[in-house]
Amino acid sequence: MATSGKVIRCRAAVAWAAGKPLSVEEVEVAPPKAQEVRVKIVASGICRTDDHVLGGYFPNIEFPVIPGHEGAGIVESVGEGVTSVKPGDKVIPLCLPQCGECCFCLNPDSNYCIKSHFSESQNLMPDKTSRFTCKGKQIHHFLWTSTFAEYTVMPEYAVAKIDAAAPLDKVCLLGCGFPTGYGAAINTAKVKPGSTCAVFGLGGVGLSVVMGCKAAGASRIIAIDINKDKFAKAKELGATDCVNPKDFTKPIHEVLMEMTGLGVDYSFEAIGHKDTLVRDLLAHHRCLCVMVGELASGSVVSFDPMLLLCGRTWRGSVLGGWKTRDSIPKLVSSYLEKKLNPDLLITHTLPIAEVNKGFELLRAGKSIRSVLLF
Ligand code: APR
Ligand code: ZN
Ligand code: ZN
């Protein structure tokens, strides 16, 4: 390729400081180093976690930074030693990588790869340098994905090669929101047929939990949100009941207990609020509660430990429990076979120049997923 080995100048949405809108700038993207891949991003969804970055919720994320972690694109060039992808391959960047060698990757029950950026103290590449500059300043990476850039660089083990037939403007959702929610139900909770589930929060993640519960054969799926505009989509995707906590004066777990008699079998927190986490845990005597939403760094939750002693289980789920490099390509294949339909989550498609409009729609509760196109 003509650009291989050279610095590429392209557009990217840069967050210069917390609390400020993104700024679409011309940035320079350095070539990939050894074991790295440079990808031309075609489409990127906007996830609430990106909004948390803009809001400064993660103190360890340094600014300026290029957010975005729900993208899909085409390999532009590869660094020395890269063997699993080549220029022209369609790929999904992995915000949770799979190195294949660490103790978690070797453990069949875990997907929390220890060689991920989660173990890094700074949002740079693994060698502690950045491939991005803008106006002479170093720009930080985010989750090694930074999919709000037209070209981005990531470690080889943070890239999944997908089917060449995949429509990138749709399968980008398989980079975060859809597998996170769907996998929380299928992999982490292992929802049983005939069970009753409660899903707190009906954004892209929570609605994907609803889809997962339905696919697992749950007979009752209670969808909970303070924005009633989310209910029509939740029903379309499989929710049997929709509940707005604002319609009740009593606590929501009491409402759920009354609705179900015995309470729910599984509950999922897909909001990212510590209050709903505890409420979620109270949803039933024998409930398995799965934490899907991401809380602000440093959040502290207090709860009565007797809740656990009585037999409840409280589990966390990161990226739906999928071992990403193995599973995301399979999810793309299932999508192409029409076994999954994350397209139903896409409410808006916007050019990258309108990235801030995408965030305004999310904050106003008017979108589920906006997909940005380059
Ligand atoms: N009770 C019920 N629903 C609530 C409450 C509440 N107290 N507060 C907010 N919600 C609803 C919102 O109305 C919205 O529909 O939760 C939903 C959250 O959806 P999004 O903001 O679209 O977020 P999403 O992208 O789905 O991510 C959910 O998972 O990955 C994490 O960081 C992400 O914590 C976030 C969570
Ligand atoms: Zn996300
Ligand atoms: Zn690993």
TrEMBL record:
| PROSITE patterns for this protein | ADH_ZINC
Family to which this protein belongs = Belongs to the zinc-containing alcohol dehydrogenase family.
Q: Does the keyword Acetylation apply?
A: yes
User: Which CDD domains does the record associate with it?
Assistant: alcohol_DH_class_I_II_IV
GO MF terms, alphabetically ordered: all-trans-retinol dehydrogenase (NAD+) activity; zinc ion binding
Which source organism?
Answer: Apteryx owenii
Task: State its cofactor.
Answer: Zn(2+)
Q: What is this protein called?
A: Enoyl reductase (ER) domain-containing protein
Q: Which GO terms describe its biological process?
A: retinoic acid metabolic process; retinol metabolic process
Which keywords fit this entry according to its UniProt record? Acetylation, Metal-binding, NAD, Oxidoreductase, Zinc
User: Among its keywords, does the record have Lipoprotein?
Assistant: no
Domain Enoyl reductase (ER) residue range list: 19-372
Lineage per the UniProt record: Eukaryota, Metazoa, Chordata, Craniata, Vertebrata
Task: Please provide, in alphabetical order, the Gene Ontology terms of the cellular component aspect for this entry.
Answer: cytosol
Q: Which Gene3D superfamilies match?
A: Medium-chain alcohol dehydrogenases, catalytic domain, NAD(P)-binding Rossmann-like Domain
- Kindly give the SMART domains that the UniProt entry links to this protein: PKS_ER (SM00829)
* SUPFAM superfamilies tied to this protein: GroES-like (SSF50129), NAD(P)-binding Rossmann-fold domains (SSF51735)
